[in-house]
Amino acid sequence: MTGRIADPTLWREGTERIAWARQFMPATTALAAELRESGRVHGIRIAVSDVLEPKTATVALLLAEAGADVAVSCVGRDTDDAVAAALVHAGIPTYAHRGATDAEDRDNVLALLDHHPEVIVDDGAATIRLAHTERPGILGSMAGATEQTTSGVRPLRTMEREGALRIPIVAANDARTKSLFDNAHGTGQSVVLAVADLLDQSWAGSDVVVVGFGRVGSGVARHAAALGARVTVSEVDPVAALQAAFAGYAVEPLADAAAHADVLISTTGIAHTVAVEHLERLPEGAAVAVGGGAFQEISLLAALDAGAVETSRRGAVSVLRLANGRSIRVLDDGHCINVSAAEGNPIQVMDLSFGVQLSAVDHLLAGRGTLTPAVHILPRSADDRVAALALGAFGGGLDAVSSAQSDYLTSWRPRDVTP
Ligand SMILES: NC(=O)c1ccc[n+]([C@@H]2O[C@H](COP(=O)([O-])OP(=O)(O)OC[C@H]3O[C@@H](n4cnc5c(N)ncnc54)[C@H](O)[C@@H]3O)[C@@H](O)[C@H]2O)c1
Questions:
Q1: Which tens digits make up the pLDDT trace of 222-281?
Q2: 38, 133, 170, 243: least surrounded by Cβ within 10 Å?
Q3: Residues within a 6 A CB radius of ligand 1
Q4: Strand, coil or helix: what is 41?
């Protein structure tokens, strides 16, 4: 066995679930077939560091089928042990086991980096950053890395600004086929359904506060409203706040909104968004959850330091009695709820996100030696290709710009635009 996993005997169950997921990933599968035909990834060492469930495993297997030398890692709380076993059974070194400690998570990433990847496919940029701090010797021979999330792209841009970034990065998150669908639709749906399932209560008429109205927050608000909730949005960006108001939601500072929340969901992806003073404004019995995913996005450790006590726990729902005497329900210890306590984003959405990731791998390898150590955007043509493949799978058809339109679009002389 290569890698470090919990239980290799679970491989059959994992293999079945991967095979099921694969049927619903037509864009990713088609792009992997193109990679195989072009020979672009043949013999290339690729590290995949992402939530380890059947959709991610499908990507790892497709890359391996295209000829890449693939290895995988994942943090313990986002690992499906049966899927990890299936990958190892298929010959892919995998470093991931449910329940791993922080130290074990870190060792697993370092073990992945010791495969000397030429490309990293990352989610959260932890692996890319550890490569820079702990394994800088591998960077010189790398083609680059591709990063899937908003919160991962942010520190990579900081590294670029500070001159610390040493490899080209594709901001897969910023591709239109990623963030307009995964963040807005997939995460909106999966976060709201995960919270609803854990709370086991009707949302009709309940008061839901969504913190942050970016792409994820707008999707969470829309799905909560669709279940009948009264939605209030808290924002720090006036434009985003105004968008929330135009979408029909109440907009309030968090300290005011928290005071009437039945359910509060943070979607900012920024640590300490929901501070102890916000938690202490919540009514008795309110529930809090995270859809963004930063460590301590809800300041639970600070609440414990301030005197809060966990009084009970059932599955992923714990009850925290705050220092002010009120009790609130905390969903899965404030981890990214749709991933840590549910199945993650829907397959059709991840088909797009992973299609973007494979296109980014192709772009990095095609530009090897010419791409600068900076954060790059996936070319529009590649983004369009992912969308067109997925649209085809949806049974949709597309028009093309006519030559008359094209003439109009490319002319500038005043007479050409006179009505
Ligand atoms: N759970 C998932 O499956 C999943 C999927 C995609 C993205 N994400 C993560 O979700 C997070 C958000 O992603 P996004 O694409 O929506 O980002 P975004 O930048 O579009 O939106 C974040 C919003 O939060 C607002 N904000 C920041 N601080 C705030 C505060 N104190 N109070 C209120 N609002 C505040 C910002 O103004 C911004 O509008 C990121 O961390 C991203 O990585 C999670």
A1: 999 999 999 999 999 999 999 999 999 999 999 999 999 999 999 999 999 999 999 999
A2: 133
A3: 149-151, 179, 182-183, 187, 211-217, 234-237, 240, 254, 267-270, 273, 291-294, 336, 338-339, 345
A4: coil
